[in-house]
Structure formats: structure tokens, C-alpha cells
Amino acid sequence: MNDKDDNFKLDQSAQDLYKQLEGIDETSRVASSQSSLIDLLNQQTKLLDYYRILLADATYLFAGIIKSSYSAAPSQEIDQKIQDFLTSLKKIAEFPEFNRKIYCRLRGQQHTSNQLGSETYDYELSFNNILLDCQMALIIEERVKTQGKGLYIKLMDAFQSLSAMNIFNFSIDTGAGGEEDYRKLETTLRLLIKFYENPSREGFVVLDEYGQSSINLTLLAAMNNVKPLALQNLVDKIKPLILGPTPDKGLELFATVYDAIFASMNRRKDIKKIMIEFNNAQLLMNNLHTDPKRATVVVQISRLVLAKYGSSPRMASEVMNSINSAGYIDMRPEVMGSRLTKASDFLELAEQTDNRENLQSEALRNIEKGLDHLPDEMYNNMSVKGSEASTFNIEGQETKFLLHEKILDFLIFFIRRSSIKKKVQDITNKNVWFDDDDYAVIAKDFAISKEDAVNLISLLRDSFDFNGNFRRSFFEKNIQGFVRSGSKVFEFLWHYLKELPLRNDRVAFLNALQILVAQLEQPKLALNILLSDIFDRSAKNVKFSDRNAFILATALLCSSKSPGRTHIELTPEDVLQTKDDLNLDTISVVLEFFEQHHDNIIQKFRLITELLLTSSAKENFAENEMQPRFLLYLIREMVIFFSLIGGKSAHTIIRGVVLEFGDPFSAYYREMKNKENLRHSLQLLQIAARSLRRFANPQDMNLLWEIVSNEDAFVKLYDEPDPLNHVQRVMEKIRKGD
After folding, report:
1. How far apart are CA 442 and CA 449, in angstroms?
2. Per-residue pLDDT tens for 315-349?
3. Cα pseudo-dihedral 160, 161, 165, 170, rounded to 10
4. 8 A C-beta contact, residue 199 and residue 205
5. pTM for this model (two decimals)
6. Phi-psi bin for 695: left (phi > 0), alpha (psi -120 to 50), beta?
7. What contacts 24+ positions apart, CB below 8 Å, involve 110-118?
8. DSSP track, 624-648
9. DSSP annotation of 33
10. DSSP letter string, 676-712
11. CA-to-CA distance for 50 and 579, rounded, in angstroms?
12. How far apart are CA 356 and CA 729, in angstroms?
């Protein structure tokens, strides 16, 4: 990172910067950097990093304020921390479309350091769709040398303090963001200090249904001027209705007495919700359902866990995570044993209840879903023997743990499935065979019969000749057979055939898949598979399959079915004329994905752009190395896809592409070694300009006219006169909007 990046400051308001990043930029474009597109992407990243740093500062101050109750800190020091904390919240509230809620939860899935057991401090902070954890803190420190300095240590200090105070999730609601709301927040903070000074203080602290000092109930009483004794009496009245042998049906959707009291009183407008909540059971159990029956079971699970571990919020949190599908996302292998052991503990606990079948079924459904999405590498070093499972770490050390038989069954299945997938990848090898057990696993994975599983593998084998080359005609002939195997068949085919060794095979497979996706009953599922593959958080490279993924994703956006056999390597430019033929439901799925993975998308686009700039300035390439032409076509596919879905992020990125390739004086064109890439670059510019017009922004029209006015400068980029008048034709298309 250069000095200019390192000295980044956000002196203007976040609203103004965000507006500028949305493409409303009336300043003259000066060649002050190597890449205007990289500059724009950096600004997007800096904006997010700025708010993440604010979030870290606020959390550090928040934890410090509560921790001060344990020390004899001077009142002036505490007052200053409170004011600094409120100032940080006000700055965070400047984020465009801020939803007024900040969350923190213990994940316990990633190591925060090299020390054994450091996952105990693995918390995640969030607001809107901005996330911050210890891993991201280290990345920001590297990106933002000055403002990010010491960010990781500061965050770890906050998380260790929260852990020591038995706080494993909290939420902060800034209300409408007015001064009165911030005064209430200040009052809440001072009450928190009072609570932690003496959590057993009579006449102030309210106990929950498990006899534990409750921060939430205490704050609820204090902030609403309700006498603690009166609220305690109400807790004692509701307690048997939730925990008694015959729970009240009207309270079956409330995990705790606190939830029930607030919901009841809030409807009568007798009481207002507290602005800071701690260890909320609903935040611990994030797989709530719209199905009333399943939602009720989830509440019963929460009650059971709290009844057993109410005196240990950490254990309650960890057990909840172990029976949540989200509790297995991005999980480190070393955490697997501990997490599954706690899940087994819950299943044993549920065995003692009258409703054990429903409780166990809900938990097992979530555990299986979580294990299903773990990478195959997680299962490569695992084995099951009898009632024990074992894992091996990178040093080769074995760890054994006892698990519930149903969880062991899951592990046996996923370990076997992982090995079968390796066979599928090597299916062109004549020596690879599938036995009855393999077909049974495939049948279970796809929810099809064993006979259909045999047929699926047979269809796949028929798609390759004896030399291992892909046979498109055979594949297309059997498409109906593939489709009959269910919605998972696309994931099966994509993940294990997308990187075929030969380019001709990859192209043939792409065209064959386009016909298949047109007949899929669940295009949203296929689209999510493609986007997750392209923008995988752990992906640090660009894949040849990325371009094909975008071509398929664009096909999935269109409502009409494929007219028949196709043979293309690029999306036809005419798709940019499409408006009424787009599947709006599918587009809404993409927009939601983009909102949730904004940072990953920016980083991927930056990676591709940097790779293009580097390769364009090279003369020689290694075998199978990505060359400029491929990368230009990859960006072309991204631009087309982004323009069809629309939205702020798409507009910003497309405008950045037009800025980059529409500047004949840029470093990209000056340092280009192979002039043949000029033609491909101008083709990309033509597509990007046409895509930009779809947003109908007047400022964009000014930019396009500026580009057209530089036609002579583009012509001079050629070493010899352009024999095909390519520049003139591109500028004419940009001028007319064709």
C-alpha cells in the first residue's frame, strides 16, 4: 500500500463519500494513479474499512466502560469513555441506510491466534451487512497502516473482556438516532456499570426464571421506572407458565420470561424495549422459522439449554452453536471435535424430555445441514471407529472423541461422500469403479433411488470418450436423465467438471450446461451455487471457471428457456437489450447476495483488475497462465451480469470499468505490450458503455461524451494505422448507444 492509501482520512461526511462512490463524480479525471478502476475499488474498500474501524473502537470502549465497574477508575475517565463511545455510535450512524442495530455474538469457530483454545474469543461484530472479526482486523491492519494500527490487539482486548464478564452476545439499538436516544443510551451505560459493580444488589437487580441475576430484566425495570420488586413478582408469576410441567400455549414462542414480559407489555404500550440487550436466547438460536411448529420447537430447545446451562452463559452459547447450521460455517478442523461433542451432549439431554423426538429431529436437521456445507478437506483427515470419531491435525496428532450415534452416522456419510467425489473427478480413468455402498451414498445425497444413482454415474461416464474427452452430444442427449436426478445435480456437475483440463472440453461443457440450466426447476439454487463459487470468501485466486460461471449465471437471469443447441464462448451482446425478459425473483436473490457479500465482490474484482494490469504489461507467459485476452473477456462477462441485475454496487463497478478503459492516456494503455489487446480492450469498453446506459444516469452520459471526444487519442495507441477502423466503429456505437 502506498503512502496515499496509508494516509486515508474520511474528513467529509460518509454520506458525501458514498454519493461520490456511486458514480456522481464531476471532478476532472487526472492521471494521478496507475489505475482509476483500482482507485475506485480502493475507495469502496476504504469506506467499509473506515466503518469497521469505528465498530472496533466502539466495541473496545463499550467493553472498557463495563469493565470499569470492576476497578476504581476515576469518574472523569469513565465519563470520557462514555462520550467517546457515543461519538463512535454517531459516526457509525452516518453509514447510508444504517438499520440502527449493532450486534455481537460468540462464534467460537475460528482461532484468533496460534494459541490452543483461542477460538474462545472468536466473536463477530456486525451492522447492516458489514462484518468484523479478528481475521478481518488483521487484514485491515495490513491495508490501513495508520488508522488500522493495533486494531487486532484492541479487538482481542474487547473480546477477552466480554468473555470474562460472561457476555456472549449483545445488541445495541440506537433508536431513531436523536439526542434523546443517545441520552437513553448513556443512562443505560451507567446502569450497566451499577449492575456489574454488584450483580447481587438487592432492591436493584432482578433475577430470571433460573434464579440468575439478569442484566436485561434489571435494565428493563430501571429504564422504565418499574420497581424491581414488582418486576420480580411478575417474573415469578410467569416462570411456571414457561418452565412448569404444562407450559402455557400462549407463551410457546418465547424462550425466556424477559421475552414474554416485553412482548406482553409492549403491546399495551406500558413498557419500552431496552436499547442494549445481553445474552439474548433468540440471538443464540438464529435458525428461527416461519413454520409455527418448528419455531415452537426451537424455543423449546432454547429453554432446555438455558435450564441446563443458565448459570454458564458460555456453555449455553456453545451448545446453541453446536446445534445451529451456522455454527459450522468456516469452522476450523480443530474445533470440530469440541463442537460435535456439545451437540452430542444436547441430544443426550433432549433424550430425557417428553418431546425428545421433535427436539432431536430439529437439532439433527441443523447439524446435518451444517456438516453438509463443510469443505471436503475437513473430512479427509477424519475417521470413525465404533462409537469414536478421530481427527488428525497438520502435525499428525490424533484426537479422539465420543459422539452420539446419529452424529457418527452423519460423519460416516460425509467422509464416504468426500471419497466418492474424488472418484467422480477421476471418472475418465478406466480403473475407477463405484460399488454398491458408493451408489447408496450418492442416492442419499441426491435424495434419489439407488437405481437412479447407478444411472446418474452411467450418464456421466457416457459423457466422456475412451481418451477422457468430453462428448457434448452424449451429454445433451442425456440431459433429461440428469434433470430427473433432482436439483442437486447442477451442483454435482459444476463443482466436479468445471475445471476440465482441456479448453475445448471446458467450452463444450459450458454450452451443454446452458441447455441443462434452462430446464432446471430451481434456477435460484443454481445461481446461488455459481455466485458462492465465484465470490467464495476463502478464494484468493482467479479461476478459468469464473468466466463460464458468469455466462451461466446470466443465462439463469433470463425468464425464457433456451431455444436449443448453442455454441458460444461469450454472452451475446444483444442480451443488454433485455429488460422485460428478466426473472425478477431471480434478480432479487442476486441483489440480496451482493448486499451480503459486498466486500468479497469488491476484493474479487480488484484481484482480477490487478491481474490484468500485471499481465498486460508482460511479454511472455507460462503454460496455462491467464493472459490479458481471457481476463478482458472475464471482466466483460462480469459487466454484462452486473448491468442486468442493476443496483448501486453494480453501477459503481461498471462506471469504474468505463473510467479505466475509456481513458486513452491511462497507464494500462501506455504499458500494454501486445497491441492486439487494444481491440479486446475497446470491445470491453463498448460493452461497458452500453451497460452503463442501462442505469440512465445523466452524469454517466457526460462521461461517455468525454470518451468519444478522445477518439484521436485512441487511434494513436496503435503502432500502425488501424486497418479495420475499429476505434471509429467503437466510438460510433458509444455515441449512438448501440
Report:
1. 9
2. 999 999 999 998 998 888 888 999 999 999 999 99
3. -90
4. yes
5. 0.85
6. alpha
7. 110/134, 110/135, 110/330, 110/331, 110/332, 110/335, 111/332, 111/334, 112/156, 112/159, 113/156
8. T---HHHHHHHHHHHHHHHHHH-SH
9. S
10. HHHHHHHHHHHHHHHHHHTT--HHHHHHHHHHHTTHH
11. 36
12. 72
By residue count, the chain amounts to: 738
* Phi, psi values for residue 278, rounded to 5°: -125, 145
Beta bridge partners of 398: 392
pLDDT at 77 over 60: yes
1-4: long-range pairs with CB below 8 Å, 24+: 1/142, 1/143, 1/144, 1/145
pLDDT at 537: 62
Mean pLDDT along residues 503-516? 86
Question: Taking a C-beta distance cutoff of 8 angstroms, is the pair 370, 342 a contact?
Answer: no
CB 111 within 8 A of CB 332: yes
Instruction: Write the pLDDT tens digit of every residue in 211-234.
Output: 999 999 999 999 999 999 999 999
Instruction: List, in order, residues 6 or more apart from 136 with CB less than 8 Å away.
Output: 52
Mean pLDDT of 609-636: 92
Cell 465498530 identifies what position?
55
Give pLDDT tens digits for 142-190: 999 899 999 999 999 999 999 999 999 999 999 999 999 999 999 999 9
In the chain, the amino acid numbered 480 is Q
